[in-house]
Amino acid sequence: MTQVVRWYPFSEFRGLNRAMDRLFGDFTLARVRQDGEPSELTFPVDVAETDSDVTVKATLPGTKPEDVEITVSEGVLTIRGESRHEETTEKENYHRREIRYGAFSRSLPLPASVDQEQAEAEFTDGVLQIRLPKTDDARPMTIKVKGAAGELASATA
Questions:
Q1: Where are the domains of the chain?
Q2: How far are the Cα atoms of 21, 39, 77, 80, 91 from residue 86, in angstroms, in the given order?
Q3: Mean pLDDT over residues 1-6, rounded?
Q4: Cβ-based neighbour number of residue 140 at 10 Å
Q5: Residue pLDDT, tens place only, 33-80
Q6: Domain covering 43-87+97-136 assigned CATH 1.10.10.10 in the classification
Q7: Which of 1, 34, 52, 144 has the greatest count of CB atoms below 10 A from its CB?
Q8: Rounded to the nearest 10 degrees, how much is the dihedral formed by the CA atoms of 93, 94, 100, 101?
Q9: At 14, which helix (H) or strand (E)?
Q10: Residue 29 — pLDDT band, cuts 50, 70, 90?
């Protein structure tokens, strides 16, 4: 007896989808201009929040601190810069060239309003760390609950 198997027409595209992911996977870290050259690079970041501040860490290997610009505007942190390639020899035969050089930029929405005047940035061993203190209205506030007689409520029963 013949067994009936359900056919899913879109399952044929799974292999094509994987092939396209492999093909374009190399371009996930770079935006590409019309001529195929990368126009702007990006970089990984960590954004953390405590009660008092927002901390951003960004890895920028091969970049000098003077080549990095940090701005905060309307709740968005923008990190811009450029990593430069200094040619040492006139002709090299590359077997693989994956290190990208050029301008980079990344804009991140901040999770809370910050006091940009008190912000601090430190660049150590290729890692940029930015500390942005929260404004007073962004810090959590504890409200004490009073009873009907104006006394503080207690948890004892």
A1: 7-41, 43-87+97-136
A2: 32, 18, 29, 20, 13
A3: 78
A4: 8
A5: 444 444 456 789 999 999 899 999 999 988 889 999 999 998 899 999
A6: no
A7: 52
A8: -10
A9: helix 13-24
A10: very low
The contacts of residue 60 (CB under 8 Å, 6+ apart) are 43, 68, 81, 83, 104, 123, 126, 127, 128
Strands 53-59 and 45-49 come out as antiparallel
In order of 75, 90, 106, the CA distances from 103 in angstroms are 23, 23, 11
Amino acid type, 95: H
Tokens of 141: 């506030």
Contact 131, 55 (CB under 8 A): yes
Model confidence pLDDT, tens digit, residues 72-122: 998 899 999 988 776 665 667 777 777 777 888 899 999 989 998 999 999
